[in-house]
Write a structure and sequence with these properties.
three-stranded parallel β-sheet; 6 strands; alpha/beta; globular
Length: 124
Amino acid sequence: MTRYALVLGNSAYPDDLGLQSPRHDAEQMAIALKQLHFDVTVGIDLKYDQVSHLIDQFAIQINAAQPHVTVVYYSGHGLQIDEENFVAPVDFEEGDTVRLVSVQTIIQLQQLANCPSRCLQEQF
């Protein structure tokens, strides 16, 4: 059974927005998933362009592999705007809605991958 995971953890936000545990949580989740034989893609303290690129690369990877199981894990700041949820990269600044990554984009990875109906995707 093929298993893929995308693990993101953002702690290094500027000024008083910094968080202590997301980096550690993501690193520990990656270790646990690797022990369960997942092919794990990890992104720690990423800026907007880096997060977007990593998600694009992960989508390409799972599209080619068509895994049986796909897990997405995120720890860090998030926002909700008009009932849509967003991941906040570490270069996010208050009021900047351009440098946000839509959770819907991440959730749609399973659809992009054309996974069989038995795929599992952890949703936020």
